[in-house]
Design brief:
The structure is a homodimer. Chain A is of the alpha/beta class. Chain A contains 12 helices and 21 strands. The radius of gyration of chain A is 22 Å and the shape is globular. Chains A and B meet through strand 2, helix 6 and strand 5 of A and strand 2, helix 6 and strand 5 of B.
């Protein structure tokens, strides 16, 4: 496994990329048809034979697949059942249940290389000391980034999750650790930074110089806060356990997808028809090298656009616009569709340490209660209300300044819609009870 | 890396093993002297040159090293500083502070193979579905067993730590998981078993058929409970991040140490002199293949004995008597030295679901308060008192039957000595307060 060769592939000429994709596509469709019940049945249902799929465009003949298909029968999406190495699961918080993703040894090697390419794209080198704060275990991110950093040749501190933010801050300050590069959720850096500053620390003087953040959409205001607070260069990554990963390059305006590994389509989620380049739609993936859990025309629920193959960094693999919205997360509030991303962007444009926005229904009307971790201030309150009105088109029912915020779920949701049932709602009820006392 | 070859080495003739050890010993002592400050200084302090160490017996000329040395200067024990891959830490609960252990890529490969040999010795095969409940992250066990199972060719469910025992029970029951082999702390299986049975479940009907447990000494009564409860074959393992790992074979009466990787000596901890074969003493290790953090005559604090190279399983690598005592854990209670192991063995000989034994001082006298998770019963109370008296030579101040026990520390201590300061004591105080209310 030579990382250099794989990195070089990101600079292939576009027609070479397409040629390679089509070669792999023909092979994988044949393989899927012969081995994976889910895709065999999908092709059969529209009377397709593997040999009908020759070009990237031919993919459109195949019906979509989705998380629901895999939740129903995880093994139905698996091709090579004999060489499986392990499984990972996604959290079932979207309400659709847990997705089980199976990996062969070969799949995992591809994932590790993909992540090494991502880290390389994000500016990490073999000389970095990588502080990996993504969770190791059932969720794939910790291990896949660990193995990616290993392929890159970097030194790794496998922090994973720890009991408190202070345990992490102490690790970052540890004179025997001296991490130069962070990997994990963006909000970890935000939260630890505030905690550290409150205790008189100066995160900007830490040894960290780079961050590769992922796991949730990152509004520009959040990126700016992190960069300023820690004095580092923050790149955004994006990955799905079912599909793979992609990362920003120096340009910081989109992820370079590994086109030799995955074909990405962008469709209108209502009609299922492809949209134009640069136009937003739902991302649909077809994996080309995996033989464990396969994804053929797999609807991701993520909204983005393809930005073309012209990047000043020299990479020719198509860039995806940074993810702002997971379609599942869109909420209708007072008649308008909003995404948590928009609300977060508006809130973090101001000097706040965190917030929780609760959408609820009272007497058949939508109400929006916002709790803000910041010093109480009328000016700030007015700024926040006006900003939310402008960017998210609704007025909050109230804004309350508070000292501490609860952590809602592993990723720490900041916008919670109580109108939808979720096991996480209980935490919000308890928090609101405690605040109103 | 051919696992078969490494497994075959465990069947070498004893004189071949010693020849190999001495060849590696000469090389590693030279390497340590030239590259690792700690060991250079130790040899210098007694005017030793690397060429003075030719035979295993020559090791005795070298002063001991210990955890304290590495805590003081973690980098001083590192040889190859250029090819480091990662670090792991041990918990600092012994009061001596956190040990940082550095690994090169090559070190880790050796560790993975060592663990594959351990799993093989414990009866695991490539056909197993391994449920790995050891924590991944800063602590090395999760990752090292994961990579060991990978080398073995098994399928892995990387469970790591989860929020609740039920999350694990549900994984074990998950019809898409079907684990056949468990790896983790023995008390996990005990605890989950009781929880599952209390809810009407039958752990003995689970798909688990094997367990490889480690992380704490395992009294025979605990092993029996686990085997009976889950209907499986339970093997005990033993490992130190600084040194490596070893496991029981079919004989279930000692760990086969990887003698090609590590030389083990057994010494009288008071005099530092070697003891006879079969005689108990402190284990002292010298690693032969690691080039990251080296261990040269490293005092482990673990008490055991070497049982010779004659094992019906055919392996010729010396067997170590199962660890019963960490010398650090020995406590003087009412004038008698006891180990937590002895207390656990006595308690679990009875029908209890768990216990917490608290050693404390009141008015200059030792007191022993025991909280037992079991149905209140005078008969059981008398049995437990008599058993403790016989095996641990003291009488508990009281035994109280309770419904729920607190988890004390990551490994869940069952014997806590409040006379020694520890951050874990707070949990015990809180628990005892809540019980006395």
């Amino acid at each position: 496994m030579d990382l250099k060769e794989f990195i070089q592939m990101q600079y292939m000429k576009p027609d070479e990329i397409i040629k390679l994709q089509e070669k792999r596509l023909r092979k994988i469709i044949r393989f899927a048809y012969d081995n994976a019940k889910l895709y065999h049945d999908k092709l059969k249902s529209v009377n397709l034979k593997p040999e009908d799929i020759k070009k990237v465009e031919d993919l459109r003949k195949i019906p979509f697949s989705s998380k629901e298909d895999i939740v129903k029968d995880p093994f139905g999406a698996v091709g090579d059942k004999k060489n499986l190495y392990k499984l990972h699961t996604t959290s079932g918080t979207s309400g659709k249940g847990e997705t089980i993703v199976y990996f062969t040894y070969n799949d995992w090697e591809h994932y590790a290389i993909q992540n090494a390419r991502c880290l390389n794209s994000a500016g990490f080198t073999k000389d970095d000391i990588v502080y990996n704060a993504t969770p190791y275990g059932m969720f794939f991110a910790g291990q896949v980034l660990h193995d990616g950093a290993k392929v890159l040749g970097a030194f790794i501190i496998p922090a994973s999750t720890l009991k408190t933010g202070w345990a992490h801050i102490n690790n970052i300050k540890n004179p025997f650790f001296k991490p130069t590069a962070f990997v994990g959720l963006p909000q970890y850096l935000l939260r630890w930074g505030h905690t550290y500053i409150a205790a008189g620390g100066e995160p900007s003087k830490s040894t960290l110089k780079k961050a590769y953040v992922l796991g949730e959409p990152v509004p520009p205001t959040v990126r700016e806060k992190i960069e300023q607070m820690w004095g580092l260069d923050c790149r955004i990554g994006y990955g799905l356990s079912e599909i793979g990963a992609s990362a920003e390059c120096d340009e910081k305006n989109g992820y370079h997808w590994c086109e030799d590994e995955v074909i990405v389509e962008v469709i209108d989620p209502k009609t299922g028809e492809p949209v134009e380049e640069d136009e937003k739609g739902e991302l649909v993936y077809t994996t080309l090298t995996k033989t464990g859990t396969l994804a053929i025309r797999y609807k991701s629920g993520d909204e983005s656009a393809i930005l073309g193959r012209d990047c000043p960094c020299g990479r020719t693999h198509a860039k995806l616009r940074l993810i702002e919205t997971r379609l599942d997360d869109l909420m209708k509030v007072k008649g308008t569709l909003v995404s948590p991303y928009t609300i977060e962007h508006a809130m973090f444009a101001h000097d706040i340490k965190g917030f929780l926005c609760v959408i609820d229904k009272e007497k058949d009307s939508d109400v929006i209660r916002i709790y803000v971790k910041a010093k109480e201030s009328n000016t700030l309150q007015n700024q926040l209300i006006s900003e939310i009105k402008t960017t998210a088109s609704f007025s909050p029912t109230f804004i309350k300044f508070i000292k501490d915020l609860p952590q809602i779920g592993r990723k720490g949701k900041r916008v919670v819609d109580l109108r939808k049932e979720s096991p996480l709602n209980k935490l919000v009820y308890e928090f609101e009870d405690s605040v109103s006392k």
